[in-house]
Q: What sequence folds into this?
């Protein structure tokens, strides 16, 4: 799975670097380095909706460092059957 996180000006100001740090830590903690690729992206066209992300082909807006763990759980761990922390 490829996760893209917008690092454009608006998303940067809304905390995209913090989201990247949370996702990197979760990928490492769950040993998903071979299954999840984290990439920076520029404007996804949703600048008013918090940090913009893509999980594969699915757009997810309003991500921030405070809700990043829940977003990752919902869009990465649950689809992989790993929501319980396996």
A:
């Amino acid at each position: 799975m490829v996760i893209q996180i917008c690092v454009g000006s608006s998303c940067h100001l809304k905390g995209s670097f913090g989201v990247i740090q949370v996702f990197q830590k979760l990928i490492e903690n769950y040993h998903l380095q071979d299954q999840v690729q984290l990439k920076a992206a520029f404007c996804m066209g949703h600048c008013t909706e918090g940090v913009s992300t893509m999980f594969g082909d699915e757009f997810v807006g309003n991500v921030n460092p405070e809700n990043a763990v829940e977003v990752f759980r919902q869009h990465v761990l649950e689809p992989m059957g790993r929501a319980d922390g396996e």
Notes: The chain has a mean pLDDT of 93. The radius of gyration is 12 Å. The helical segments are 9-13, 16-29, 68-77. Strands lie at 2-6, 37-41, 51-55, 58-63.
